Amino acid sequence: MAAAAGALPAEWIKNWEKSGKSEFLQLCRTLSENKSHENVTFRDIQQVLYELANHVVKGNLKHDQASNVLSDVIEFRDDMSSILADVFCILDIETSCLEEKSKRDHFTQLVLACLYLVSDTVLKERLDPETLESLGLIKQSQQFNQKSVKIKTKLFYKQQKFNLLREENEGYAKLIAELGQDLSGNITSDLILENIKSLIGCFNLDPNRVLDIILEVYECRPEYDEFFVPLIESYMYMCEPQTLCHILGFKFKFYQEPNGETPSSLYRVAAVLLQHNLIDLEDLYVHLLPVDNAILEEHKREIVEAKQIVRKLTMVVLSSEKTEEKEKEKDKEEEKTEKPPDNQKLGLLEALLKVGDWQHAQSIMDQMPPFYATSHKPIAIALCQLVHVTIEPLYRRVGVPKGAKGSPISSLQNKRAPKQAESFEDLRKEVFNMLCYLGPHLSHDPILFAKVVRLGKAFMKEFQSDGNKQEDKEKMEILFSCLLSITDQVLLPSLTLMDCNACMSEELWGMFKTFPYQYRYRLYGQWKNETYNSHPLLVKVKAQTIDRAKYIMKRLTKENVKPSGRQIGKLSHSNPTILFDYILSQIQKYDNLITPVVDSLKYLTSLNYDVLAYCIIEALANPEKERMKHDDTTISSWLQSLASFCGAVFRKYPIELAGLLQYVANQLKAGKSFDLLILKEVVQKMAGIEITEEMTMEQLEAMTGGEQLKAEGGYFGQIRNTKKSSQRLKDALLDHDLALPLCLLMAQQRNGVIFQEGGEKHLKLVGKLYDQCHDTLVQFGGFLASNLSTEDYIKRVPSIDVLCNEFHTPHDAAFFLSRPMYAHHISSKYDELKKAEKGNKQQHKVHKYITSCELVMAPVHDAVISLHLPKVWDDISPQFYATFWSLTMYDLAVPHNSYDREVNKLKVQMKAIDDNQEMPPNKKKKEKERCTALQDKLLEEEKKQLEHVQRVLQRLKLEKDNWLLAKSTKNETITKFLQLCIFPRCIFSAIDAVYCAHFVELVHQQKTPNFSTLLCYDRVFSDIIYTVASCTENEASRYGRFLCCMLETVTRWHSDRNIYEKECGNYPGFLTILRATGFDGGNKADQLDYENFRHVVHKWHYKLTKASVHCLETGEYTHIRNILIVLTKILPWYPKVLNLGQALERRVHKICQEEKEKRPDLYALAMGYSGQLKSRKTLMVPENEFHHKDPPARNAVAATVQNGPGGAGLPTSLSINAARLEETTAEEPGDKLKEKTQGAVKVINKAANATPKVMTSNGNSASNSKIIKEKEEKEKSVKEKEKEKKEKTPAAIPEAKALGKDGKDKPKEERANKDDKTRETKEKTPKSDKEKEKAKKEEKTSKDEKSKTFVINAESKSAAEKEREKEPSRERDVAKDMKSKENIKGGEKLPVAGSLKSPVPRSEASESEREQKRRKVDTHSSPSHSSTVKDSLSELKDSSAKHYINHTTPALSKSKEREVDKKDLDKSRERSREREKKDEKDRKDRKRDHSNSDREVPQDSTKRRKEENGTTGSSKHSKSESPSDSPRSNEKEKEKNKSKSSGKEKGDSIKTEKMEKSSSGSKKESRHDKEKPEKKEKRDSAGGKEEKKHHKSSDKHR
Between the CA atoms of 1335, 1336, 1341 and 1344, what dihedral angle is there, to the nearest 10 degrees? Predict the structure, then answer.
């Protein structure tokens, strides 16, 4: 109202009569004439009139004034009265709300005044009934209201009916007769329509009822579509368009009662009318029940129910609760069986599908939840039928299998039905869409399922053929992706709902196998992880499958594999993913299920096997699972179980391997090597190639033979029938080009394990992974070598330089991969040459073989040059390098024993078959034939290998002169050989370890120039600590095998002089003078003779002991584990010397005690070794039997004269050069040498001082256990001792003691020769004692004396024993003191006896001093009195550390030596003349008794030494420190000397005379000697304490 006031100024109202009225009229006229903006004008006039009337209501203007002006305004426009009525209507509403009565009265008066302007009718339309009543236009408002409602009802809701009484029934009868007549003649719908029109007119029929009757008749006569549809269409032109829809709606409504059932005929009629567009679906849809919301609710309820069922199945229900649950379920099911109300929408949908109206059907389905409609079987079947019809022509053309007749399906007699598919493109347009709506419910029609799959197969055939244009290819790509979608959304879910239909599964596999495995696995993944959650039915099926799987797996055992397998098979046809997922989860927990599960999978279809492969890969790749156990040192058991299952299942069943192999390759690319476990298992099971470190030597030997021998004797399990499975594996590798990539990835990953993957991991695990990676590489390479043809191999494996330089393959692995290629290549070339020329002579064959070798290997020789620096080839030739790496054990030796063993086994088998009475004859015959065939094969193979080996050896004989160039030094050559050939290869595989040892022997036997066998063996045995410490577990085992084979050779040479002479005597490998190249010298004196070789072997044994003890004492896990593995492997040949064995035994015993609680795996290893070591104790020999300490040779003095102190009893050149063996060759000048050795000593000294703990611990390592052992030994061998003592001389005891002390501190390296001087002095005493004995025997006087002596001896022994038991700690101190003494006396900082550190190069510093002392010893070395002997011995004891440090004794100035020696000789000659005759007799006696006494003395002395020194360190070293303390040393030389000069004879006799004299003195002193050990010991300990202090302080000072 406020707004209105603005348009009509207040002045106008005030001066209404004067000017206001005219102004108002003017305004109205202006507004009415403005025609341009019609609606604006209309609004403005409304506004003006409203304001005017409003002034009247407010009382500002009288109603008559207003009516007057309005009567003028009315004429301005035709609709002015209507506008005015509108204004009154608004004011009516406004005033009725107001409380002020006056305003309402003003309004009423205004309306009354204007009644003549607005008609009553308009007012009645627009004003309230109450207002009308107050205006007097109507009598009663209530009646007016009722009347208006009636009128409205009549207008809008009542149908216009003809008067029923006017309709005549006869008309309807005639109508039905018209419609029901026989329509087969010429009667058309137009004709009938005219008749119907006539009937309606004539009989006053209701047209709507006529239409209803037409529809009824059509329902009853559905076959006359072509008549009724045009009729209804024509009829509809006379009606309103909605009529038909309404009539149909009423028909449907009639059946919507609770138990009503809509007839299918009505649905069909509606469907046909919809198809012909006579009605709209939207119009009809609203008449149908149930409403869409109800459908949605029902769908949600089904999902919830499905989930509840799943929950129930996964819950653990106790038996008491089970029965209650079942009853409840029954009640619920009964409730459900009440009939659900009819779903008219689905009924209509089914009818639409039947008549082929796909468009309308699709739109109905779109309004429902996905797959809701097709989950009703009739609809699914109707849709399937429609698909059948649509694909019929295409299926008949491309899908029908050969020879199948099939039953053709007739097409719909309906032009509006979907067009039938003639090509694959048509499929995409319609059929794929229909199938998508079907979803999992294609399961209702297995035949259609098969048809779709066959069409898929036909399409794939076309898709994979190449002859397509680019456009076609693009179309095909689209089609292919559609096919994949159909497979994912329709085929696989449908298979799930089919009840164990194996045929469908096989049919589907026919299509699936044409897909690449990547697509297949993607489909399986979707099927397993997503499809099952997409539909309530599938959710239920999944739960039921798991439930059933649990039931089967609980009952699966080895005994019921068959029935359980059948159940698994049944279940797997429909739901393989779910079933296998559960089975695999069980296998991961319980590995004992693997065998029964593998056996029970024999009833699966091909598709299921493929799904199984996918499930395995998915389980392996599970990111939630840890691949390591919680201790981080071992691979998880679930992974091991899965790998084992993989191997077994892939071997037994024809499952495609590509996916699994690619998975392993991808993991390797990602730098993860855990999954190599799978590859290892698969190759082992499928190809029968085992990789195990636990092979026996027999198996290893068999592995060096041909393929047949390997299969028979090389593996643990009898490998049979791997031909098919290995072929499958080979094909998978070649088809997908995975053979070489896997090899290269493994070879590279070996280092990756250490440097990348192993970063955070435990060292033990890193070792395991490295071993696994390496073993798998060896196994996989072995598989490729034995299964790939030459062409395949050569085509795939690049040349050696490419492998190493481009692919960065480690050299050992690169040669390992190339080796079979060379062998194949050579044999094929050889065969070609043989065919070309028919010459049969052996030489011709060999010549051809060598030619073929040259042809194949020449490029290799060139290629290897790039692998190493040029200076490498100064020492070894590329030819030698390539030869070493390209040969195998098969080429070097024939394992005759192995062949014989297997042939004998077969003979035994045949005999057993003959003796077996129960075996049926035909089986007997078969078995015997098999055995005979096998035997023939083996013998043939042996013969073939023998010929091959002979050819190879011929080839090597020709090559050998060019092998080692040694342009620098022999030492350097050996270094290169070990570094580049032996060490990398000996830890590559067990067979390679054997090969390396064999190759070294072969190079020696071939008398290869510039090859020093002695140096080579020396370097191998000298310091194994570093090699052992850097090995993994399996490498340690292989390294142990290598050492074992090397030791076997050495032991063979050591065991028998004849063998040594035959195999090493004149061989260049055993020259001790290492001259410049080109001259190896044939001088016999330069050869290492047998006795010295034995000393050297003892030195090697000692070195091994030292290294072993060092490793055992480090406390490092790797050191201890590896050395125990190595020691176990070399047990057959080491330890052979008793004292070394005991030293080891004590250390291992200590490990057992220390590690029992801490590291059980080390404890187990140590216990195992300890047991084996004890069992071999009986085979060990005392040191003096292992290598002879010098006997009192007749030529001793003469030898001294001749050779000087350089090495008693040895040729001078030998003694000097043997000393040089390890350090350097004769070519290097002295100054250089000094620098070298001094530098080395400094380094070593640091090392020695850095380990004081080790020293002491070794010293006391087993003092207590030792005491116990001694007691036992004592008890056991009291009697033996008594006997021995009777035979021995009293003088033996101090001698033994002296020996013990003296031997303690000799340094470890090449001392076999240098020590002879002191040995001579020592050995003379026992001999003089023996002569005494013999003199006594002749006189028969001293038996009583002897017995007395021994009684005293036994007493002193036991006293010493007791004392030691009381004071073990004091004894330990004594041991330490002795060590420290020895340490300091050397002048240089020597490694302590107990420390057993790595061998120390000796210093040159105190050389001159040592030389002087050595000369002194020489002058004193023929004593005239036994006390002199003792003095010299004690002197020796103190100075021994000083004397024998030097590692490389330079040649001595021989003139000085000779002067000294001549003086000695003159003296001895004078004495000897007198006693010459007597001596002859004695010598004969001595020869007789020599062996007995010789054996007895060391045993006794050993025991005595043990008791006196009381500690491990001292006793160990008293024996082991002097590798050449052997009484029979150097007999050869002495024999030579004898023949050379008669002067020596004289010298000898003089010496013996001297001894005789001394014997009388020594008799007297013998008793004192026995008491001396204890005293001496005390003296030592007292002095030792001071020494110890001094030692400590000097340590600090350093």
Answer: 170
- Identify the top-confidence range among 44-53, 75-84, 479-488, 1056-1065: 479-488
In the numeric block, which tokens belong to residue 403? 């020879």
Q: pLDDT at residue 427 above 50?
A: yes
Residue range 585-601: mean pLDDT, rounded: 92
Which tokens in the block code for residue 458?
Answer: 């036909």
CB atoms within 10 A of CB 62: 16
Question: Which SS3 state, helix, strand or coil, does residue 964 take?
Answer: strand
Please enumerate in sequence order all residues whose Cβ is within 8 A of that of 1093, keeping only pairs 6 or more positions apart, or say none.
1053, 1054, 1060, 1064, 1070
Task: List all residues 6 or more positions away from 1258 whose beta carbon is below 8 Å from its beta carbon.
Answer: 1109, 1113, 1147, 1394, 1395, 1396, 1512, 1513
Query: What number of other Cβ atoms are within 10 A of residue 1539's Cβ?
Result: 8
| Cis ω before 563 (30° cut-off from 0) | no
Query: Does the pLDDT at position 212 exceed 90?
Result: yes
Which range scores top for mean pLDDT: 352-356, 500-504, 894-898? 352-356
What is the 3-state secondary structure of 967-987?
A: CCCHHHHHHHHHHHHHHHHHC
Element (H, E) at 730: helix 723-735
User: 3-state DSSP: the chain helix, strand, coil percent, rounded to 5?
Assistant: 75, 0, 25
Q: Helices H, strands E: what count in the chain?
A: 79, 0
If you average pLDDT over residues 887-894, what whole number do you get?
88
User: What are the b/e assignments for 140-168, b being 16+ CB within 10 Å?
Assistant: eeeebeeeeeeeeeeeeeeeeeeeeeebe
User: Using 50, 70 and 90 to split pLDDT, how confident is the model at 1405?
Assistant: very low
pLDDT category of residue 580 using cuts at 50, 70 and 90: very high
In angstroms, the first-to-last Cα distance of the chain is 119
Query: Largest Cα–Cα distance of the chain, in whole Å?
Result: 193
Are 370 and 436 in contact by the 8 Å Cβ rule? The answer is no
The model's pTM: 0.64
Average pLDDT over residues 75-102: 88
pLDDT digits (tens, 9 = 90+) for 1112-1122: 888 888 899 99
Query: What is the predicted pLDDT for the residue at 1560?
Result: 41
Distance CA 753, CA 1032 (A): 12
- Out of 704-708, 759-763, 907-911, pick the least confident: 759-763
Q: At what angle do helices 1426-1443 and 1316-1339 cross, to 10 degrees?
A: 160
Token pair, residue 21, equals 């009225």
Closest Cα partner for 76 from 20, 126, 34? 34
Instruction: Return d(Cα 1399, Cα 1309) in angstroms, integer.
Output: 7
Whether residue 987 contacts residue 1031, with contact meaning beta carbons closer than 8 Å, is answered with yes
pLDDT band of residue 272 (cuts 50, 70, 90) is very high
Length of the chain, in residues: 1598
Contacts of 312 (CB under 8 A, 6+ apart): 325
Q: In whole angstroms, what is the distance from residue 663 CA to residue 667 CA? A: 6
Residue 1137, beta-bridge partner list: 1181
Q: What are phi and psi of 261, to 5 degrees?
A: -130, 120
Round to whole Å and give the CA distance between 2 and 5.
Answer: 5
C-alpha dist (Å) from residue 1008 to 956, 1003, 1005: 10, 6, 8
Q: Hey, what's the torsion of the CAs at 990, 991, 994, 995, to 10 degrees?
A: -140
What is the separation of C-alpha 476 from the centre of its chain, rounded to a whole number of angstroms?
40
Determine the Cα–Cα distance for residues 1374 and 1379; give it in Å rounded to an integer: 9
